[in-house]
Amino acid sequence: MIERSDDPSLLAQETQQARANFHWLVLDIALFGLAMPATARFLSVYAIRLDASAALLGWMAALPSLASLLTSTMAGWWRSRHTSALQALRLPALGFRLSFLLPAFTPFFPDDWQTLWLLATATLPSLAAGISSVMFLVMMRQAVLPTQLTSLLSQRSLAFNLTVAVATLGFGTWLKLAPFPLNYQVMYVLAFVFSVLSLLSVLRIRLVMPADAPTPEHPPQNPWRSAAFHRPAFVAALVHVTFFSILAIIPLRLVDELGADEGFMSLFSLAELGAAAAFSALTNRIAARLGNLNTIALGMAGTSLAGVVIALAPNLPLTLISAALSGGMWTMAGICLFGYFSENAPSESLTRFTTAYNQVVMLSVFVGPLLGSQLAETSLSLTTVLALGAGLRLIAAIIIRWQRAGSLHKVGHVPLMSARR
Predict the structure, then answer these.
(1) Alpha-carbon distance 226 to 222, whole Å?
(2) What is the dihedral of CA 186, 204, 87, 141, to 10 degrees?
(3) Which of 70, 89, 158, 289 could form a disulfide with 135 if both were Cys (CB 3.0 to 4.6 A apart)?
(4) How far apart are CA 39 and CA 331, in angstroms?
(5) pLDDT in tens, 120-145
(6) pLDDT per residue as tens digits for the range 38-70
(7) Sign of the dihedral defined by the CA atoms of residues 73, 74, 79, 85, in that order
(8) Has this prediction a pTM greater than 0.85?
(9) In whole angstroms, how far apart are CA 52 and each of 57, 215, 336?
(10) Cis peptide before 181 (omega within 30 of 0)
(11) Cβ atoms 247, 369 nearer than 8 A
């Protein structure tokens, strides 16, 4: 870490290093985006090809968050054993990236075990993600100057959506043309290579901002006892539970009921990503006019409409409207959600507050998918379950919108995007 000083030469050195860090962080997310579709877009389709049930798909979406929640409690202890957040990130980040490699071994297991192995490949690496996600967010804030964060987040979001779109299209085409299951095995090995290259980019970073160390003037705070943390935590829980309540069963609707194949799943993802890229560039302007909470409410209302569209769509082309609505509105809500938390998190207790926030999100992402998947196992049709989930999203939007006026926080900060890194 560069020592901070008023010396002009040291300040110039700090600025130069921050610019280099900016470059490595954008390259990191671009390479990570090339790997992401293998698990985020196609793991559930792989499981469906192996006759996974709705319940198992729900557990695949939920258990990784529970695993991350359990290990995130160790983030503070893990950070204390290392000289910096960057050093503390190395081993957990590599462990998390095994989620891209382990599915490649699925065909080597007996048929009855293959879907369970896919569940394990989604869950076990998430034990490392509980620590790496906290360390990454802390490290990112310490890697660039405060004036660079807005531009960094914008460029990272754009780079991520573009490379995920490219990889989704490429992987989808490959999966459709190559024989099963070799097509999936090759995809996961390639995704693992991209993910490791992204980590190597992160390891080129040299931190420039002070560590999040308490001082006598600013003693450490307990987020669970902080009123400033309670409301962002409530909003985060509400948003994630309702959004993820039907996310895991959407592939079932597309594949089993409407006949989607890997090629169409690529188009569906491209519609999501295109809208996400557009709204990542517009969100700061929207939030500047509406405020974070109102923007989150607007985003959740949009995801509710997306749920209605996919529930009622009589054919696959119309589901692309739902994909675009979901991708754009969720991106807008997600950026402002962490921004709402970030403006309430004191810098001297950043690791503690970020850990607590991640725990709330992880628990919510664990609970949410189980709601929809368990309903899908009943006599209710998928259309009904999707409509119920859309209703929950709309209720969340209404609750967030009608928060007391005194609780609203205008945008006067730099939002950070959470990711399991």
Answers:
(1) 6
(2) -100
(3) 89
(4) 19
(5) 999 999 999 989 988 898 888 788 88
(6) 998 899 889 988 988 878 888 887 888 888 888
(7) negative
(8) no
(9) 7, 52, 35
(10) yes
(11) yes
